[in-house]
Amino acid sequence: MADTTTLEAWLAHLERQHPVAIDLGLERVTTVAVRLGLTSRALAGCVITVAGTNGKGSTVAMLDALAREHGWRSAAYTSPHLQRYNERLCFDGQEIDDAALVEAFEAVEAARLADEEISLTYFEVGTLAALWLIMRQQPDVALLEVGLGGRLDAVNVIDPDVAVVTTVAQDHAAFLGNHLETIGEEKAGIMRPGRPAVLGSTALPASVRQHAESLAAPVFALGERFDWQATADGWQWQGETATGEALTLRSLPDPYLPLDNAATALQALTLAGISLEGAACQRAFGRAVLAGRLQWQGPWCLDVGHNPHAAAYVATSLARRPSRGRRFCLLGMLADKDAKGVIEALAPQIDAWVPVSLSGDRARGAEQLAAFLETCDAQVLHCAASPDAGVRWLHTNMDNGDEVLVCGSFWTVAEASTTLESLGVVASPRSVS
User: Fold this and answer.
1) Model pTM greater than 0.70?
2) In what residue span(s) does the Mur ligase central domain sit (predicted)?
3) Fewest CB atoms within 10 A around its CB: which of 17, 23, 54, 401?
4) Is residue 125 part of a domain?
5) Spatial contact of 402 and 288, defined as CB atoms under 8 Å apart
């Protein structure tokens, strides 16, 4: 094996190691997890696993902020990352360092090669490394975001104490199909017999609840056993403890993230054993941030949403924030995403568009996006060869008062954010939606 003494070298090695980038199934990753000892004892004091099409990241971010404000030591594993791989694993809000990741990759590699060699994907190795590091730290709560689907995702080698499903919409059709009931059942695969299942949307397909009920898992559904309402001084939440006691929290500040996800986080933590305190919840929601989700850098709004459901939320949020000038959209999307659906959802809030090309096997060119835009009677200002080129063109051609939404992919947002920083456009103190 080539030199893998640095994190950069390890990541390059992992990208070459497995013949395909996504290879759903738990047999291979479970075998290595057993060799690592990940299934022999508890990962943390409590494990909350979060699945869903949209809203996973914001739910985990608020779970983490809430847990820490209540004095719990936390670990949060999320994916993908925007700019640094280290973003994927945080302990008490701090990114893991390179040395710890290298040590974890070495441990996974040794387990992978023990006895019969087992091939693992980039994501599977990263997940096992994160779980190995979490088990060594033994935090009070481990927050695990599912990468794709649920039932066959590598994260699902760990049994959660509380399972959360945020939303179900069409995405990753090549792996999950196009039927919402089937997608819902896949995501519900993170649930375990007799353990609480938190359903974070009022529009989930019936298969999610049906799967929970088949496991005799107590169901806590938004709009039924917990809910939220806007109030003159913010918003309030009502929910239940695991024993059925009613709880109400009032005067909560806007976290500038979806309130369905905020309410879901509160319910999940209650079931995990935290006695929610109003002041701690207020502090948590006042400080919660999530990079790349309606995050403002000057007049530039960056959002990683890449399907129509996420785009509709972005459009609703922008509608509440009128622009003083024109509002442009810098759009870069992968070829397997519903570009037309995203464009249609955003179109009411966008005056003109700058499509950009992405690179890689799944890339879609700016000209292809421009063709979709033309079918929607949208104005295309310029086609750019990359997000970097698109940012630089807009930076030169926009006027004071104009705004730009950058969206469509993690790759689009990550590259655009780096370019904006090089141009001296700094991020706002917190995400805004």
Assistant:
1) yes
2) 50-192
3) 401
4) yes
5) no
